[in-house]
Structure formats: structure tokens, C-alpha cells
Design brief:
Layout: E1 12-17, E2 26-30, H1 44-54, H2 67-89, H3 110-113, H4 124-142, H5 145-151, H6 161-172, E3 176-181, E4 184-185, E5 189-190, H7 197-206, E6 211-215, H8 225-232, E7 240-243, H9 249-257, E8 262-266, H10 272-285, E9 288-293, H11 296-303, E10 310-314, H12 326-331, H13 334-342, E11 346-350, H14 356-365, E12 369-372, H15 374-377, H16 382-390
Parallel strand pairs: 3-6, 3-12, 6-7, 7-8, 8-9, 9-10, 10-11, 11-12
Antiparallel strand pairs: 1-2, 4-5
Helix pairs in contact: 5-9, 9-10
């Protein structure tokens, strides 16, 4: 399984099976080694308690003919609950999909059979993720993974995203610029009416951008994978970041076929095992992985992963969408900053940079690159917007 959750790398879950005339479900859990601190391990006790309650409970299957389908639904639901427990143990508050009650005929403890409350998103990020879950499921049916793997044979070679940021930082003395091709955002609405992604990308490149970020979410940001492909095929030489809300490894393969050189992974959405798994997929495909964090706990999680080379600090609270650039400084102070320097990790400052003073502030905090969209894409000439952002022309 290649997707949200690599079951090959996670605890094996066996859920109730209906196989005997007595119809008494069997339930067992086999836990393999997980890279989770002991204090944060999953609450297996509650699952064991559930197992013991199963002993004296029998199912009420409506007919023998539909029992395999019911068993499958139960398995899927149990795995979903297990994923939710893993995410919760790591402080992830974003739910992957709307909560639902257990399938019909489920025979777990009473509290598990109650319908969950809160079938509406709690914030904009959760709404985006829920929408993405539905969107990706449909796309996977239209373009199965095996077809994407075949398409990789004709994909253009990847370009060195991290190398371009380092080179720009050395050449200019400023953080390397990842300029974002973005038409709209949920918080600001339409940013640019006369939106031509290729022309904007070319203007960014002429203005001195080291790399480009291309929004591919359609519903909330008015972006598309077609924009990514158009820019890649236009002759623009800057490496391209696919700015997508990744919840499934399928999206990484799809981005690669469309010309991406790097992809965004959001720690507020993805559990550790998913990030590790997806980082390996990126490395296999030649892509850089920009792992985005928002707070101290997410930073500590990501710094515990050996393969991470590129960390983005988003100054925007993705639950409230409020921006505070001091978040970058806070996350780079003390021991965290020392670990980053020792491992030579490139830190990207994201959101809230509009002036040379903003750039100087995050650079002093320790970033080697910045990702900027709104403050430059809204300018009539995006190239002059870059000059205004840095206080000088950085293309020379």
C-alpha cells in the first residue's frame, strides 16, 4: 500500500473476522517496533480492553451473504481509528477525514459504537484536508499508481532544489528566494486577477528567484497541476516546488510526472511514519522534501528524523491563519538551532515577509531561504516586487 499510511511499516492490525457458525468475532493486535517515545506510545490498553469485551459479544449479521463486505468495512474502520490514535499521540490535531460511527453490525464496546460528534471541519486546514481526501480518492481511480510509474519514464529529469537555494544564498548574501506562483488563498481571496502562471514564473526567474513554488490545489487556492506542468515546459530553469496538501504518496508520484523537483510535506497533517515513508519516496524519485512545521512539538518531531534536509517554518497558524514572523526565531533558538546548524539543514522561512526588515529578521534568526508569495505576486511587475522585498536587485 502506498498512501496515507504505510501499513508495511506500521503495526499490523487484525480486526473482527466472521468465520464460525457462532459468529463470535476474533480480535488481535500485533505491535511491531515503532519510533515513538515510550511516554507517547499508543494506548494499546484501550484496544486490549475492547478485545476482552468482545469475548462475550456476538454479532448480528443480517445474512451470511453480506458478511464479507461487513468484515471489510469493519477492518477499514478499525485501521482508520488506529491511524487517528497514532496522529493524536504525536499532537496532530488535524483529522484526516470526517469522523464517522462504526459500520453496521460492529460489536465493539458501547462507547466505540456511538456516533462521533463534530462532522464539520474545525478550521480551514482541516477543511482543505477533508476535501483533498475525497479529491485524491477520485484521481487515484482515474490515474492508478501503475500508470503514474509508467509515465515516470517520460518525465523530465529533476533539478537540484536544495543546491539552487544554497547557491543563491552564497551568491547574494540573502536567503535564497522560493517565489510562489499563487492566484488566491482562503484568507486573502483572489490575489491577482490577470493571472498567467508562466509569465509570472518567468518574471520571478528574471528577478533573481532561486526556486519557484507552484500552488496545485484548485478549490481553495485556484491552482492546478496543469500550471505546474505549463511552467516546467515553458523553459523556466528554476527548480519547482509542488505546493500541495499531501496526504497520500500517490500525490508525490503525480507531482513528479508533472515536472516537480520538490514537494511539500506538512507535519501538522502527517504522522511521523508517513513523513518518513514519503521522504523515502521523494528520495527514490529524486525529489527534495520540504517538511513544514508550525510549532516546537512539530519541530522536535521532524528533527528526530535522520533524512530531513529541508525544513520550512510557517509563521502562519494554519488553524487561525494569523501570522507572526517571530515564530521563526522562537523555533530556531537554543538546542534546536544548534542541531540544525550541526546537521547543515536548510531552514525556509514561510509567510509574513513583506519588507527588507522582515527578510533581515528571519535571516538573523537563522534561515537560509524564504518562501514568499502574496507580497510579490500582487505587484504589477513581480520582478520589481522581488527588488522591493530585498531592498535591492538580487538578480545580478
Amino acid at each position: 500500500m502506498e498512501g496515507l499510511f504505510s501499513l508495511l511499516a506500521t503495526p499490523r492490525v487484525l480486526v473482527p473476522t466472521v468465520s464460525t457458525p457462532s459468529l463470535k468475532p476474533k480480535f488481535s493486535i500485533s505491535v511491531t517496533r515503532m519510533d515513538v517515545p515510550k511516554s507517547k506510545k499508543l494506548s494499546a490498553a484501550c484496544v486490549r480492553a475492547q478485545q476482552s469485551e468482545f469475548k462475550d459479544v456476538s454479532t448480528t449479521i443480517s445474512s451470511p451473504s453480506d458478511s464479507p463486505e461487513n468484515a471489510l468495512k469493519i477492518k477499514e474502520w478499525e485501521v482508520g481509528r488506529f491511524q487517528d490514535e497514532i496522529a493524536a499521540s504525536q499532537g496532530i490535531r488535524i483529522r484526516r477525514r470526517p469522523p464517522t460511527g462504526p459500520p453496521l453490525h460492529y460489536v465493539g464496546p458501547f462507547e466505540f459504537r456511538l456516533q462521533n460528534e463534530g462532522n464539520t471541519p474545525r478550521n480551514i486546514l482541516e477543511e482543505i484536508v477533508w476535501n483533498k481526501d475525497v479529491e485524491v480518492s477520485k484521481l487515484k481511480e482515474q490515474k492508478p499508481l501503475f500508470s503514474l510509474k509508467k509515465a515516470l519514464d517520460n518525465a523530465p529529469p529533476t533539478r537540484d532544489f536544495i543546491g539552487a537555494l544554497r547557491a543563491s544564498n552564497l551568491r547574494t548574501g540573502f536567503p535564497g528566494l522560493i517565489a510562489e506562483v499563487k492566484k488566491a488563498s482562503p484568507s486573502r481571496g483572489i490575489l491577482r486577477e490577470d493571472f498567467d502562471p508562466v509569465e509570472i514564473a518567468k518574471a520571478y526567474e528574471k528577478g533573481g528567484a532561486a526556486c519557484l513554488s507552484v500552488l496545485t490545489d484548485e478549490k481553495f487556492f485556484k491552482g492546478s497541476f496543469e500550471n505546474l506542468e505549463l511552467i516546467r515546459n515553458s523553459g523556466v530553469k528554476c527548480p519547482l516546488l509542488c505546493k500541495e496538501f499531501v496526504i497520500d504518496a500517490w500525490q508525490i508520484y503525480y507531482a513528479r510526472t508533472k515536472g516537480a523537483d520538490a514537494i511539500l510535506l506538512i507535519a501538522a497533517v502527517l504522522p511521523d511514519l508517513d513523513i518518513r515513508y514519503m521522504t523515502k519516496i521523494c528520495k527514490m524519485l529524486g525529489l527534495a522534501a520540504l517538511v513544514e512545521v508550525h510549532d516546537e512539538r512539530e519541530m522536535d518531531r521532524v528533527l528526530g528524523m535522520e533524512d530531513v534536509e529541508l525544513i520550512g517554518i510557517n509563521n502562519r497558524n494554519l488553524e487561525t491563519f494569523e501570522v507572526d514572523i517571530s515564530n521563526t526565531k522562537k523555533l530556531l533558538e537554543g538546542e534546536r538551532g544548534e542541531i540544525i546548524r550541526q546537521r547543515d539543514i536548510i531552514v525556509v522561512g514561510e509567510s509574513g515577509m513583506f519588507t527588507p526588515a522582515d527578510v533581515a529578521y528571519v535571516q538573523e534568526a537563522g534561515v537560509k531561504a524564504i518562501l514568499v508569495g502574496e507580497s510579490i505576486v500582487k505587484q504589477e511587475d513581480p520582478r520589481s516586487g522581488i527588488t522591493g522585498l530585498f531592498g535591492k536587485d538580487i538578480c545580478v
